[in-house]
Design brief:
Keywords: Signal, Transferase. The protein has 13 helices and twelve strands. It has two domains: 201 residues, Periplasmic binding protein-like II (D-Maltodextrin-Binding Protein, domain 2), CATH 3.40.190.10; 97 residues, D-Maltodextrin-Binding Protein, domain 2 (3-Layer(aba) Sandwich). Strand 8, helix 6 and strand 9 form a beta-alpha-beta unit. It has 352 residues and is an alpha/beta fold.
Length: 352
Amino acid sequence: MVKFLKMMMLAILFTVVLVACGESESATTGTTESDGELVAESTIDGIGAPETTDVTLRLNWKFKGEFAPLFVTKEKGFFEEYGLNVEVLEGNGSASVMQAVAQGQEEFGITSTVEPAQGLVEGMPIKMIASYMSRSPFLIVSHPDSPVETPKDLEGKSISISISSTLTNVFPNFLQSNGVDESKVKSLPVETSARNSLFLNKDVEAVAIFSTNEYPVFEQQMGVELTPLYLADYGFDLASLTIIGNDKFMEENPNTVKRFLAALNKGFEYTFENTQEAAEISAELFPEATDVETAKGQIERLEEIALFDGVPYGWMSPENMEQTLDILEESDLISERYELERYFTNEFLPQD
């Protein structure tokens, strides 16, 4: 009888150890599978359980290489690792993205830092929570036989600009701030396709574009190295690839927001360490929009302006936001200005 009781005690002890080990293992991971469904664990990287697991990220345009890290995060399972089921959907402009997020139709959206600053003036309940281009992607490229190496070089030359671009609205201010006589610059605001054709056909000497989009594409198509002029080097550093969220949603779901950004932090890091694979993933997902060579070139340009030394990807600089607001005020693009905490927060980003 004594021997039997000892065996029973050992069996119970063994069962307790197994259960404890299972609990310890689950605490270090973000998700488990239950009947094929995603189940979020209680903590991961010090972040508590998500208040909701199904969220949407709406892009402000169709696929281009700068969006690759967002899809890599999903395809490599990083969202799932943090207990989230995330839909990443293409969009049709920052205005519609802000409307959807402000009205609570979608949880997160992509814009630049410009549009949310304007949206706040209109009373939209939104806030910027990360910006993955810490340096502005706006640049002017020119043909090598007629280079524009400084803003002053634009005098006596023609430049095509997309009529729907934010750059069109700040361009006069950019010229004035850099001592350029606007009357000596032939600026042609046209539709995007016409803007590109004017430059590719050499009907204009320069074109205003995005470094992470058209720049590598134009060099590939023309077979030459174009001359770049980054607006950030001349006082116009407007951060972009910015994520906005709805104020109420973020207040009620802080752990979901933190997990979302933690997954993206991992996705951006993976993308820049594996640009070839990221480009292949992009081309496979969007074969009609891109190819491996184009996507890789755009990802490499993105990495050049995703500068986050000692801080997580997406960290927003107060100094950059102040400069952005200065530019918007001087360009008459905002009628009111608020305290910085109304515009953005870094509180949801991964903490060391």
